[in-house]
From TrEMBL:
Coiled-coil spans in chain: none
Full protein name: Integrase catalytic domain-containing protein
GO cellular component: nucleus
GO MF annotation: an example: RNA binding
Length: 133
């Protein structure tokens, strides 16, 4: 288990996870959500994306939708999904001077923020579907 210090500013540390197997409902055919949670403010961001995105696609999505507005993360905590441990992703972190920390899948002690946010999101989606909202 890794020791995670509490951040001193917003977007210094972020938790990242993904929700997959979402039936595509748009022309763009998004089938997944990338979930990023700001550890300092506990603020979630849900980004639709294709689950077969390679590391470069995911890095560009993060840059275009988050980092270009907030600055680069100093530390990202993530499960060990293949796209997050690819050589390209690791090299991008080296280039930007950020640190990538891995947790084990479904290990709430280290990546609990993203895991809990996904549980909340799934609960909200079920409610919307059940009541036809």
């Amino acid at each position: 288990m890794i020791n995670i210090q509490e951040p001193k500013s917003s977007w210094e540390v972020s938790h990242m996870d993904e929700v997959t197997a979402i039936p595509p409902r748009s022309d763009r055919g998004y089938s997944s959500l990338l979930v990023i949670v700001n550890r300092y403010r506990k603020t979630p961001i849900f980004l639709p994306y294709h689950k077969d995105n390679i590391a470069m696609d995911t890095a560009l999505l993060l840059w275009n939708r988050i980092c270009s507005h907030t600055g680069l993360f100093k530390n990202i905590i993530s499960d060990r999904y293949p796209k997050f441990i690819s050589a390209l992703w690791t090299n991008l972190h080296r280039l930007f001077g950020t640190k990538l920390s891995f947790s084990t899948a479904y290990h709430t002690q280290t990546d609990g923020l993203a895991e809990r946010m996904i549980q909340n999101l799934e609960d909200m989606i079920r409610i919307f579907c059940a009541y036809g909202l």
